[in-house]
Fold this protein.
Amino acid sequence: MKKKIPLALVFIAGVSGLVAAFVPHPIVKAGDEIMRNDVLRIIQSFAFILALSSLVSVHTSKIRTRRHKWPYSIVLLASFLITSVIGLGGGVSGKGILPTQIGNFNFNIQTIYQNVIIALSTSMFALLAFYMASASYRAFRIRSFEATLLLSAAFIVMLGVLPIGDAISHHLPAFAQWILDVPNAAGQRGIAFGIALGGLATALKIVLGIERSWLGGGGA
Amino acid sequence: MIIMIAVMSALAPPSGVKAYDTPGDGGSSITIEWQLSPDDEDVDGYEIHRSTDNVTFEKVGFVGKGIAQTEDKTKDIERYFYRIAAVRDTARAYSPSHGPFSSSAQWFSTTMWNVLIGFIVSSFFIIFYIYRARKGRSLFIRKIAGLSAVDDAVGRATEMGKPILYSLGLGQIDAIATIASLNIVGEVAKKCAEFETKFLCPTFDPVVYTVSREIVKQSYSTVGKPDRYDPNSVFYLAASSMAYASGICGIMTRERPATNFWIGSFGAESLILAETGAAMGAIQIAGTDNVTQLPFFITACDYTLIGEELYAASAYISKEPLLLGAIKGEDFIKVIIVGLLLVGSVIGLVTKFQILSLFK
């Protein structure tokens, strides 16, 4: 029974999703919308409570047992607590019951998000350029045929889209575009076929109850 | 002279107006078609006029010249009459009105026939090979290096006394790559439980966190070591991609995992994760269905599951005959697709038949 109910629910949800893809009738579409938007959102909300309790539990345990670099957990929990209080009490735009402005200094959740989270995310994103350089160097060092091919293609495409490419040879931009349109597109479509079939097979296996790894109890 | 100007400025109306319930839709739409005015080159466009009593018409749409079809949003219970006017400046040349027409909701999307046929054929072969596997036929599956390395990777972590890090990516629970990853995480967790290797699984989505926690917990029970399960081994990290990436980078530098699994749906952070893992000297096995991230994983990881290999992983690791049967079915469909591509290419090159129109 412990496994039969989840399997039955998955079967019903899978078949109803499949039917909604082929049946445009508003009754079916409305049911599908409820499943996708309302039901999923409700589940998401409850799951979020569990997820946050996990976050607090992991870091509280780290502090309690004084594990390696545990002070970072204090920073995390303090940030979590402060932003939660400001967000819940101050409202999204600072119009809640908690005052989120002292003189000209504004610290509502939107301001914190724009000035802290976005700035930190952008900094992290900017690091990608250095990681790309490091990855290119690694690919160059591998010295295999595939790595050389990858680097050569990337180099030609980069040159082709820059003005200097046209200055070197008028044929270079067209050749770079050919690489993108023909070998690159062919490879990507080949992978896309595999992904589509793999996705279909995975969905079928789960809906029909053949794949049960997600229940933690082994394959079939 | 006046008569000549009147004759020159007179517009010929469009003809052959016909309307019908838009096929294969959810209702509330009527498609109207007409034959262009003989003066199409000189008109500004066409106005669509609608009436419920065939007496009082209202303008409900306008299309430019050269266009002879449009859709009108309607109420399913109403009956409508239509007429089309060719427009040039203030002049209007009306076609006769036609009707009544009404719209209704359909029970099958006629534009999805090709998808339905493809789905039925593909499903048939997948289920057929699963059935054959159930009968006990042996099935050959080619070696997938990345998946064959899972045992070695877990063994290495055990010998080194270091943890295994498993990331399910940034996909939500409805992403097929995340579902495939959830199928694999249970198998990896079982091996960790058997070897008593520390297992870390930071998650991005709350629902994925809840599901993966249960899978890992169940995996420990399945191999008979429920007491070895650490409730903090699967944990929620962040719901922002860069915060998630920086969080995992922090975990890697602190915990120094011997093996990293990057399996699921990834975005720009893939390279940050894989490069940091490589710098830490970990064995890395990656798999994603995001084609744009594959080059980064191929460059920075030891093994990369490309495309369908990600979906085959669960079957490959568990060696379950029924799951292997599905992979065989997929391969057979691929053979059919390649055959169809070759035949279609030849037909497209040699004949004038518009082969691509079959897929519209």
Summary: Chain B has two domains: 2-101, 142-319. Residues 208 and 265 of chain B are 12 Å apart (CA to CA). Chain B has a mean pLDDT of 89. Chain B touches chain A through 91 residues (CB under 8 Å).
